[in-house]
Structures are given as structure tokens and as C-alpha cells.
Amino acid sequence: MTLPVLIAGAGPTGLTLACDLLSRGIEFRIIDKAPAATAFSKAIVLHARTLELLENMGLVEPFLEQGLPIRGSNFYAGGKRIVHLNMDEIESHYKYALSIPQSKTEEILSRKLEAGGCKIERNLELVELVEKGELVEARLRRKNDDGSDTGVEEVLQCRYLVGADGAHSTVRKQLGIAFEGAEYEEVFGAADVACDIQGDEMHGYLAEEGAVVFFPFGEGRFRIIFSTGDGTADSAHFDTEQPLTMETVESVVKVRGPKNVKIDDPHWLSWFRIHKRFAASYRRGRVFICGDAAHIHSPVGGVGMNTGMQDAINLGWKLALSIKGLSEEDLLDTYEEERRKVGQSVLKGTHMATKFVTLRHPVALNIRNSLMHMLASHELVQQRILRTGSLTGVSYRSSSLSCECHPPLDDSLGRTLRLSEDDGEEKPGLGAWIEFARAPVAGDRALDGECRDEQGNDRRLYQYLNSERFQLLLFDGFVASSDGYSGFTKIESHINNYFPDLIDVHVVVPEAFGALTLPPYKSVIYDFERALHKTYGASSECLYLLRPDGYIGFRSQPANLDELVKYLTGIFLMTVVKPNC
């Protein structure tokens, strides 16, 4: 029997992909050569965009229950605070970074798999893979808890293989994919300790001796990370060849950190080096890599694990459509097309940030501190930093899956000019074109917003979304129209007939209808304050098609069924999508 998907690696990235495939009814196996899940904190933060995606998967609640919201970031130099970032300015329902140890992240995802009847197969290592036509043959070797071989091997065949097996990825090496980059010269220290700093914000101290950062876990515990220097005289007093001791951490905190802070009760102490490496390809044939197997970078900003988990979410729905025979395999090309650009951007950003906070030259330090204070005081700069750090700014605008249909500017301007000669009838014109142009475009993440359901209960748009299907939002504009609603009925009927169980249709209306009677749509979203209409530039009729991963795939002004179907036929195989007659 051929297995649809084999996932090598049961860290956060592999577990996220497994949970996603489980929700889509795709059979898979997930293996890991380690005897048990990590017991250490390691990666310690989930950012706003990852939390949104976990909500879309129906998985966010246990993370919120066990994590600590971090609501601000601060940097100090010369005894003064030079930067304060307020997380409340993040354009998301999750206006914070969630502090949660990687061990808990893996535990939550593992429990989800176990509840779905999936077992993580540990002590099982992928040692060889060979692509044979439309299959991948994988050789697996059973290991003992001490890492020694048992001599037991298994050969299986699968349609697709995903390497989420970390920086030393066997899958990547078997594929012969180059992993270009370098190791930073500097060694860093990390300690998980009890600390009497109060509050729910991150604190970074930039001293002449180097940087030290305090990141809260909750219950009075913090992750402390500090730089040691790059092998010059500045780092001579650190013996990184010996285990990191609490005495060393205390001395660093005393010299660089806040005055009179107390730390004790260490749970984990370690030296570590960081790399910046990037895979030359994310895919070879039927084999994919994601997470640390594809990209590793500085921990500055805490985006590494998040980027890997988002790799998995991007890949999951595309694998499912291909395995179910609903799409051409060309759809899988868009995984690399979209995620490599994101990985490159993250690598560049974290490298620049690392160099920025580890400067040592006195003149450079003064310039850096002045720049940080000046730039971070500007709202636009803060917004850009928050979008980048929270990963809410990730977009696939240049993707081949991102398409739009709307009148050109000159046509809209012409309608506006003609309107002045008409009898005042409301028509889409230049104003509607401008509002639509300012709204999120194809490739951007769909924005959340307050609304109400048909019973009058307060809801958010994201609560209507579901990672298993596409979502079609039909906006009727600010003025209700019987012709417009008739057109929406036609669109809903076509989608329900030709794309059953693949696309959910929602009609978004701004207010009461007066003399108009709303047709019996399957789902109506009430936008009484017009907040969603304004967010999506929907002063006139338009539609938005949201992908299963919460990004806008297609939008149209006005709602154009023919162009929508044209877009959908580029994703779905119409030979297998049959009308419900």
C-alpha cells in the first residue's frame, strides 16, 4: 500500500503539518529519530500571525491557556530606555507575542494528533530516499533510546515526503540541495531562570560589554540571552569550551542588566552558536523541505519556529488537494514560489537585526542608540517593525495564485464624470475604485474585523473561516440592491453546485434592508458598523476569495462570476469537480 505522505521530523514544523493533514482527512506517518520530544524551552514565542493561523485550524485555545502574552518590548542603553514598542498596535486580534516554551508547543500539537488517532513514531530514522516515478521510496531504520541501531529496517513507498528534520536534515542532504550560508563568529549564552523583574514585557540592555535580553515565560521565570563577543579581547573572559554556569550568567546580568535584579533557580544553561543558512531549493520532485531544514537564522525576533510552522500551513492544503485528485500537481510548485521569498526576507531581516544589536565599537554604539531612539519614536516605523516582527506583514502578492479583476482607473474615472450628468443614481466610480485599491490586495493576509451573525451575536470575521476550505466573501456595498442580491444568489448557486465542500460562501451586508427582502443565503454576515466593508474597500459591490491558509487568492470589483470561475479552474481540476444536480 502506498502512503500518501511521510513526514520526517516531529518538531513544531512537522507536527503542524501533521495536524493540518489530519484535519483534511489525509493519511500520513510522522517519524522522528529522537526517543522523546524535547524537554527544553528552546524556541519560546508564537507571534500574532501564527496564532491567527492556529485559530483558523481550531488549535489556538490550548496555546492561549498555557502561554503568557508579551505586550511590549523595551531596549535600554546608558541607563535610559531608548525604544518602547507597544504590542497593542499590532493589527490583529492577538495584540501580543505569546511566550510559550517549545516543549509545550510540541506537547499541544502532539495531543491533537493523539486525539485524532495518530501516533508519532519515535526512534525511527530516515536513512535513504529514492524517487521512483510517481512514488518516493524511503528506507527507515529503528533505533534504541541510546541512539544505537537495532538492526531493524523498513522500506515504504509514499506519494510525497516532507523533510521537517531540522538544520542537519537528512532529507535535504539526500536530495543534494545546497545549504548555503555561514556561522556567526560570536557565541551566545542562554539561561532559563527565576527573575524578579515585574510585568509582561521583554527587556533588552545594550551595554558596551554586549547585549543581554530578558524574555518572560510567566510565573516569574525568564529566558536570558547574552552575547559574548566575536573572539576578540571583549570575549576573552568567557570560557565557552566549558559548560555555562550560573555564576557567569549572574556576572553578565550584574554588569549589563538592570540594577539589583535577582536571578536564581536555573532550569537550563547553555552556550550556543547561530547560523544563517538557506536552502537552494524547497522542493525536488515529490520531496519537500520546510522549517529549519530549509532555513536557519538568528533567534533575534523569535521568528524561526513561527516561519517553519507557517511553511507547513502553506504546504498542507496544497498537498491535500493534490492527493485528493482535486488539483494539478503544478499547484505544489507555489509552495516554493511563495515560501522561499518569505524565508529570504526573514533571513535578511534577522541578520541585520543581529548585527545591529551586537555592535561593539564605541562610535557605532552611539550612532546605533541614537538611531534606534529616533526611528522607534515614529509611528510609521513602529508599525513596520510590528508588522515584520508579528509576521502579519507576510504577503504573497507576487505569487501566481494571487489574481485580481477590477475596472481600470480611466474607466472608473469615466463613470464618475458621467455620473455628474446623470440623475444621481449610485454607481461605482472613482471613489469606489480608490477605496478598493487601498484595501488588502490579492496575496495579502485577510484582515479580521467585528461583525454579527444572523442571530445578532457579536462575532469576528476570523470565526467564520476554516482552514479546510476556501471562503468566498460577497460584499453588497453600502447601498442594498435587489439586482445585486440576485447576482449573489447566482454566484452562491454556482459555487454550491460545482465546488461542494470546497468553498464556503458568505454574503456580507452592512445594515437593515428596508423594503428589500434578503434571499435565503446559506451564510450571512452582518456588518452593521460597516467596519468590514471599510476594511475591504467595499463601498460598492465586490468579492474576495480567501485561501484555506487565510490569504486572499482572488478579488473582484464588481463581483464577477466568470472571472472567479476562471481563477478556480486554475486551481481545481474541473474534470473531477462535478455539479450537484
Summarize the structure.
It contains 15 helices and 27 strands. With 581 residues, it is α/β, with parallel strands linked by helices.
Question: How would you characterize the overall build of this protein?
Answer:
This protein folds into three domains: 3-44 and 101-178 and 280-356, 3-Layer(bba) Sandwich (FAD/NAD(P)-binding domain), CATH 3.50.50.60; 182-274, Alpha-Beta Plaits; 403-569, Glutaredoxin. α1 (12-23) runs parallel beside α4 and α7 (304-323) runs antiparallel to α8. It contains 15 helices and 27 strands. Helix content is 31%, strand content 29%. Strands 1, 2, 8, 9, 10, 11, 17 and 18 form an eight-stranded mixed sheet that branches. Strands 6-5-13-14-15-12-16-19 form an eight-stranded mixed sheet, with helices on both faces. A six-stranded mixed sheet has the order 20-27-26-23-24-25, covered by helices on one side. α13 (482-498) links the parallel β23 (470-475) and β24. With 581 residues, it is of the alpha/beta class.
